[in-house]
């Protein structure tokens, strides 16, 4: 996976009306919570990408090479030393070096 996150927990009721999936990098105590609603049939509002997740990486060049190979880089700001990738739903995720 592009961000090395793994599913660590899932909540799904018997009626399958929603799913909540928790992802972790296995190192920090933080989890990313993703929600899917069965009755939500239209596309989710992506907004203007000003509200987005950001991940720091130890080796920006290595991460960039992986994401370039995966074809998920959607925007680069070389002057600032960062770039964005698209998640499967089209949301932008910022990738920047650990400082």
| CATH homologous superfamily heading of the largest domain | 2,3-Dihydroxybiphenyl 1,2-Dioxygenase, domain 1
Taken from the alpha-carbon principal axes, the silhouette is globular
Regarding CATH, which class of the largest domain?
Alpha Beta
Element order, helices and strands?
Answer: EEEEHEEE
Looking at the structure, the CATH topology of the largest domain is: 2,3-Dihydroxybiphenyl 1,2-Dioxygenase, domain 1
Radius of gyration: 15 Å
Strand content: 35-45%
The stretches of 5 or more residues where confidence is low (pLDDT under 50) are none
Distance between the termini: 23 Å
Task: Name the average pLDDT.
Answer: 89
Strand order of the largest sheet: 4-7-6-5
Contiguous helical run count = 1
Proportion of helical residues: 10-25%
Structure commentary:
The protein contains 1 helix and 7 strands, in the order ββββαβββ. The chain has 99 residues and is mainly beta. The protein folds into 2 domains: 1-40, no CATH class; 49-99, 2,3-Dihydroxybiphenyl 1,2-Dioxygenase, domain 1. It has a 4-stranded mixed beta sheet with strand order 4-7-6-5, with helices on one face. The protein has a 3-stranded antiparallel beta sheet with strand order 1-2-3, with no helix packed on it. A hairpin with a 6-residue loop joins strand 1 and strand 2. The chain is globular, with a radius of gyration of 15 Å. The mean pLDDT is 89.
């Amino acid at each position: 996976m592009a961000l090395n996150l793994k599913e660590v927990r899932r909540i799904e009721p018997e009626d399958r009306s929603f799913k909540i999936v928790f992802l972790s990098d296995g190192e920090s105590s933080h989890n990313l919570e993703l929600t899917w609603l069965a009755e939500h049939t239209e596309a989710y509002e992506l907004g203007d990408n000003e509200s987005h997740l950001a991940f720091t990486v130890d080796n920006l060049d290595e991460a960039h090479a992986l994401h370039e190979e995966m074809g998920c880089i959607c925007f680069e700001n070389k002057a600032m030393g960062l770039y964005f990738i698209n998640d499967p739903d089209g949301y932008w995720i910022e990738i920047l070096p650990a400082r």
